[in-house]
Amino acid sequence: MDSNKNTILKIERTNDNESTLIAQYINTLNEKELHGYNIAKEHLGMSFQIEKSIGFINWKKINVL
Length: 65
Description:
Elements: H1 2-16, H2 18-28, H3 31-44, H4 54-63
């Protein structure tokens, strides 16, 4: 039961603080990753969604409790 409770809390926290999590994730990027992120934003424009990026999804799995 405790693992289900943790999963529910994890989902609730990510929904409430998505923009904060995105900012935290971006702050963890090294210079090369940040450059790639900026290129993706520039080239893809409005279609770029960091929330769906593999890097952000993996980072959330590790860092969001």
